[in-house]
Amino acid sequence: MEEKKSSHWLDALSDGTAGLTTISSCLTVCDLRCDSYYKLIAAEVPLSLEPKPARLRVYKGNQVVNDQALPGFPSSVQSLYIDEIEPKMPIIAVSVGPSILFYRNMKPYFKYTMPSLMIEPLEEEIWKKLSVERQANYEKLINDLKSTMNISQMSTLSQKLISLCESEREDFIRENSEPKLERLSGIVCMTTIFKNIEEEKEPNCLIIATEASDIFIMDPQNFSILHEARVCSFKATPDLISASGSYQNDFKIIISSREGSICILRKGWLEGREIVKLEKPATSMSLLQIDQTIVVLSNSLMCYSKKGKMLWSLNMPEAVTCLTPVSLPHLGVSLVCIALSNGLVQFYSHKKLVDEFQINGSVLAMYFGKLGLEEQVLVLVTRNGSLLIKILKRTADFSKPIETEDKHEEESTSLSIPKKSKIFLEQMERERENAAAIHNIFQSELWRMRLEAAKVTVDILRTGDSTFSGDLQTPLKLLAQVDGLGPDFLLTLTLENISATKIITNLAIILHANPNHYKIEKMYAELTPLVPGIPLVADFTVRIQLTSENTLPADMTLENSIVRVLIVKEKLAKPLIASTVVMPQPELQMLGTV
Amino acid sequence: MNSVHFSVNGNTNQNAVNYTLTTIAEKPKTKVITSSGSNLNWLLHKMYLIGDFTFCKKLIEQQMEMTLNQEFLLHMKGKILREEGHFQEALKCFKRTIEFDSKNANHYKEIGKTLFKLQKYNQSLEIFLKAESYLEAPDYEVYHYIADLLRLNAKHSKANILDVKEYFRRSIMCGKQIHTYKTLANIYRKEKDYTKAIELLEGSLSVAPGNVEILTDLGIMYLKINEVDRAYEKLQEALASEAKHTNCILAVGAIQQTRNDIDLALNTYKNMPNIQNEGFEIWSNIGLCFYRKNKLIAAVSCLKKALWLCPLNYNILYNLGVVLMTAQQFASAFQCFVSAVTLRPESAESFMMLAICLYYLNDAENAQVAFRKSILSSDAIKNPLIYLNYSIFCLECLKNVEESQQYLNNFYNLCETMKVPNEYMQIAENVLVKLPSSMLLPEIRHTQQIKETKILNMNDEDDKSTTAFNDNDDDDNESGSIESKSVENAAADDDLV
Known about the structure:
The complex is a heterodimer of chains A (594) and B (497). With 594 residues, chain A is of the alpha+beta class.
């Protein structure tokens, strides 16, 4: 593929050995020390699946300035301001499993674990019983537990209990004689809104979405839950989340679910509302701050209003990986940056493609915003762990859509009518003058050809007219027998291979009679391979086509009441045997009974 | 407050209770169960959407070891296997998910879809109906599949088609998926209920504004109910957003051609991408454009190409025959009309053309046979030309004044019931003048007259066939979208014309 480069971007950094694998939700940029030098914060998601702890890193340029281990796979990283004390220092929230780890000044600060989901009373009861029962009864109780509940509804403790083998159970139950049953739900994504004033560095609220389809709005100042809501009235597991507004005034949260729905949650609602149902769940989604439309990336790039009306859609040339909004207030445009799986990065202004460039490897995570001292920086992290940082040139202008390679195509768009040769034109002239003669010659030749074809057909039928096949390769003998009084007859054909050793394959029988006289139920039959010495017997029903008054067909005579039997071999034009069976006249008294 | 407070001192790694990737292999018998909150389902889903299946499979394998709650893992595994084409294995995975939650409509839905892919339609329908009974909230996919399967199952039963429509409607109500709109619109189209189809397509436009496919379909639908202006508007809108949409170009060109705007039509066709490999419709239309511009050789070339692409198309044969006749290639024209007549023995017009052809080939005897067939055909009363031509033929060739008079009367009778071009009337008057008394006029003038008239006739004929053809084109456009049945459709719609 041809390398595409864009003139709008400066390569600030291209580090193929950064060894950073992460996803978009685990990438953020903030003014960590309040020195107006924005730093990149990335939580590594160890996609190698090796038993190696995930890490939280802070980058200054390509230098890692802070690196610490995380207790599990991070699902989201957010930077947020919690109070108005100067200097304004953001805190970092990292969600791992059911907990959120807060860091202040990159020092662990607080750990918040989501409240447990409801525990079934039955489960609690069983655990109470278990602690007092004797060992012999464990089996029954555990089976009760298994049969009445889905594993997904059980607490971790019960799941562990079920997985243990019998000998270990007693100890386990004794250890947990006063069980603290807990059912935690993992955090799948987070985002922030402002608490009060919608300005940079003002205090935020954290929005948390869990796998159990709950949305929490948390005030990070005292870690209290301000509002709790369901994603939707039916099952919709959140996957992506995007929000705008402030908690005090008005806000909206857009949630994309694993089931493919996109839901909106507004201030004060206890339950979100589905606005769009996608054919395939969204790979990436964002609520654009500028015009409050929702851009969704699944098979195609789609843009929806908040009411769920599709504003436009665009098919993507390749599979897509992620999307990030690129807001350029100084140019008065808001772009959407899209990464394709083949490493192409494209920028769209509404439906128009305004810029693109190619990088090596597919992008897994993207972020656009301030970084370092620059205002407009695009951070890209690829699947194979390279970190790329590109700075937008101040001269960049995205007002013109880039030209795709249509140009030389358009030049050649004249209708290329099939050319006719000179001979054709001459023939045309000749035909114009002697149309009648040409026609007559053609017709007589046509008749001659038909005659010739008919002659050959007759010839073939005549030469094969015998009950023996003359072909040395396939010596065959055919016997025919007709049973019945009429109008139904049973025609029994016996075919024998009379060669010494050779098996004859791919044979078929064709029966042919005047359709006005006889009705043959099966006119064509493919035969099994014929072994020498063992005759093959085949029965066929032949029925006289009686008139409505139960009489014989008018033109049926003794001479023409025949059925032709042809034995043919695959890929052989000439039949091996062509024989006629003379059908007996039916008993007249039988006709009346039919 | 429910949260657990504890300060984290220095390295958070010490608190890694739940995440025990390292301890899997120690006890092979007892599984290490991770806490319910820390599964990696979200990561699995994200990577699945990106399409990194190798990673997903590795992750599933690892997670299987660590949790008893394998429902989601199996669900995803099934989906991945299905996308890779291993339907049977996928089915096994989905069946195991049911063991975890026997009342989850989603699992049944996936089984149903897999069976659908395996073309086990009856089983699939059963499963989808089961899924429907477990639905918590209306699910467009389940309804769509049920409707589709019912349609496949019961092509012949009338009662079922109502069910089919009902399910499609429900699917549209809750899902608003474009392909559901399209399928239902197609059903209505096949039933020739164009207003309903239009209603649906207009509805789908509100979901997906500017969708080229839908705009094209809608344009064609408007053509069907003869709202040419509306159709043109929709098609132009479609072309505005995608200038190289094949079907749309064809339809727009056809409309322009019907409006006698030949150069514009040709220009429209020029935009067609990859025109050399396009279907016969476009070449046939281009051929007729050239014929209108009196470029006969180009017209013959294009029509021959169309015929080569689709040798059994009646319209192409007929049109090529007309063009060849205009070029006075009667022997070739004869072949075309013979083929046309063989394809449609009931067609009165092609028999008439065949007769005229034979007349020029000096075969009056057969010409008369052909004329007779044409006149006896039930379609003969739809076209007064047939009577007029036969009347001329009787007069000219057979010298049978009475019969000539009789058919001329037939022609005048027909003229009273339908609108007939003035040229026909003039010709008829010419004939009338010669009929009883003026038989003495020189012979040669007559034949010339006939030639003229006939060529004129043919021209008019051809006008008709052009328009007819355009309609057909549109039909074919549509049937192109439902690939499997295009041939049947084309045939059925041709009859209408």
